[in-house]
What does this fold into?
Amino acid sequence: MLFLLSFCVMKAQRTLTVGGTNWAVSIPSITEAGSNYTATYESAANQILLTASIPLLLSSGKVSVHYEGNPTWNPNLILQAKRTGDGTTLCLLCTITGGTAYQTVTLTDIELFRITAIAALASYTNIPIQLQLSGVSVTIPAATYNSRLVFTISAL
It folds into this structure.
């Protein structure tokens, strides 16, 4: 299974850049009758690295994510994402909140976390995102499933 990362999306002068590497989940073969697959698979804690900027004082933004089958995805597979750190910022009064627990990524945007700028431009680099895959089962047809994660940043 392979997950592709999408590029940045800009809205209202907020910017978001997506980096990191594709995650190819290695699913071992079942060797014994009556066995099933491991319950969950986790990527590296920094599989995806986001860079986000909120350009205005007293402004905020939310980072959202959704997936697209690329070209196919089985809806019984559950893909989740979480923020594993704050990344790096020079802004002392800026905050990054939410997204530290796994959230199920769906076909429509879900809010992953928020950034708030109090007294300066809020700019964060290397915000680490971890992925988790569950729902892998012998009942799912054997195939290669691919998904693309799309991250966006917007006003609250």
Observations:
- Residues 1-12 have pLDDT under 50 and may be disordered.
- The longest strand covers residues 122-134.
